[in-house]
């Protein structure tokens, strides 16, 4: 029983140490958000939105629900220095009926909330 208690205590301490600050990559957050948006994973989209975008959660989560074959092509996102902007190359390709439409990826704002990076909308290039 003592080893089990020690193990649980160690897990608790590790979790507590990691909870105070964000160690994640804001570019990875943007990539995860875009993948969830294109695939229609509304729960993930909503979880990655910043609080300022909360009013748009349903439209963001269902943005590609009326298209078929939506996919990300050549996505490569990188944080712009130490700013709160992530710049992405690549595009979203989606079929609207018989037409294929391409949406180029752009620059996105990210913010830290409760120690996690959150997607906070498209932005003009920094």
Describe this structure in words.
The chain has 126 residues and is α+β, with helices and mostly antiparallel strands. It is 34% helix and 36% strand. The chain has four helices and five strands; from the N terminus they run H-H-H-H-E-E-E-E-E. Strands 1, 2, 3, 4 and 5 form a five-stranded antiparallel β-sheet that branches. Helix 2 packs antiparallel against helix 3. Residues 1-22 have low confidence and may be disordered.
Q: Could you give the topology of this structure?
A:
Elements: H1 2-18, H2 26-39, H3 42-48, H4 57-61, E1 68-79, E2 85-96, E3 99-104, E4 107-113, E5 116-123
Antiparallel strand pairs: 1-2, 2-3, 2-4, 4-5
Helix pairs in contact: 2-3
* Helical fraction: 25-40%
Radius of gyration over all CA atoms, rounded: 18 Å
- Kindly estimate the percentage of residues that lie in beta strands according to DSSP: 35-45%
- Overall, the morphology is globular
Order of helices and strands: HHHHEEEEE
Largest sheet: 5 strands, antiparallel
Distance between the termini: 56 Å
Number of strand elements? 5
As an assembly, this protein is single chain
Q: Structural class of the helix and strand makeup? A: alpha+beta
| Average pLDDT | 83
Unreliable stretches covering 5 or more consecutive residues: 1-22
């Amino acid at each position: 029983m003592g080893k089990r208690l020690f193990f649980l205590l160690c897990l608790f301490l590790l979790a507590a140490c990691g909870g105070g600050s964000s160690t994640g990559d804001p570019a990875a957050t943007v990539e995860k958000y875009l993948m969830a948006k294109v695939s229609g994973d509304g729960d993930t989209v909503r979880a990655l939105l910043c609080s300022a975008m909360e009013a748009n959660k349903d439209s963001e989560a269902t943005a590609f629900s009326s298209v078929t074959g939506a996919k990300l092509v050549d996505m490569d996102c990188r944080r712009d220095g130490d700013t709160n902007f992530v710049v992405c190359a690549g595009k979203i390709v989606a079929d609207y009926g018989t037409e294929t439409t391409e949406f180029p990826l752009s620059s996105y704002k990210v913010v830290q909330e409760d120690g996690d990076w959150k997607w906070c909308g498209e932005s003009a290039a920094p």
